[in-house]
Amino acid sequence: MRSIAVIGRKGGSGKTTVAVHLAIGLHLRGRRTILADADPQRSSIEVLRGREGGGPEPVASSGPKLFALKTASMRAGLDALVIDTPAVLEDEVAHAVVLSDVALLVVRPTFLDLAAAVRTSDIIRRLRKPGLVVLNQAPIARGQVEPPLVKRSVEALKLLRLPLAPVIIRSRAAYQSVLETGRSAEELDGESMAAQEMRELCAFVDRFVFGGRAPSRSEV
Ligand SMILES: Nc1ncnc2c1ncn2[C@@H]1O[C@H](COP(=O)(O)OP(=O)(O)O)[C@@H](O)[C@H]1O
Ligand SMILES: [Mg+2]
Is residue 79 part of a domain? Predict the structure, then answer.
């Protein structure tokens, strides 16, 4: 089993949006997935509770309970544990990172988010975990031209010395409504721009985390 902590020391950067999309994305790729919501606001739980049919199992879990959840999930033969974390509770974030195989840092392309990302990347380095940065809520590129804000942010993110996911998630209205349904953009309208970029991101993270290994279900 592989565990992914979705982190970011800034409220509203999109941790829950990315964590839920990723958990559903892994589920759609055949990974038996559980989503641990370590944020007392329990937004991920709220989203997935509204979901019908199969999907990643949502569980409220934080602090030392996360460790018990991880070992139980491993014993149950699950493939993936995605952990959604709060912005402000440093201990919770550290717990999640310690238990993870990869810490996925969600950052908006703003000065304040980038400054916070430097501090968050320190936690990842201190705990010696592989990290991956996802740029979220970026302004939409016009044609092939990236907005200057995005270009500057990509340059600044190089200073974190963590790999940057090659897929940038844009600011799109679709992300603000899709989670009401408990579904991901990928599921709701597969042709939309949101679906395309999330599909690419989930496929990339799946490869990054599982190193190209097929889901255990298809191995049976
Ligand atoms: N790529 C995006 N485009 C548009 N809105 C987004 C995007 N990502 C997140 N949001 C919105 O921003 C707000 C905060 O997102 P959320 O995932 O709850 O952040 P966090 O969990 O980091 O606090 C929500 O209203 C969400 O719908
Ligand atoms: Mg959240």
Answer: yes
Residue 40 Cβ inside 6 Å of ligand 1? The answer reads no
Check: CB of residue 29 under 8 Å from CB of residue 76.
Answer: no
CATH number of the domain bearing residue 77: 3.40.50.300
Q: What are the E-state strand segments in 99-195?
A: 102-107, 131-135
Residue 41: its pLDDT value, please?
95
Strand partners, 174: none
Rounded to two decimals, what is the model's pTM?
0.96
Instruction: Determine the structural domain holding residue 71 and report its residue range.
Output: 2-208
Compute the distance from residue 141 Cα to the ligand 2 centre, in Å. 26
Classify residue 169: in a domain, yes or no: yes
pLDDT tops 90 at residue 196: yes
Residue nearest to atom 9 of ligand 1 (CA): 14
Q: Is residue 179 part of a domain?
A: yes
Instruction: Indicate which atom in ligand 1 lies nearest the CA of residue 10.
Output: 22
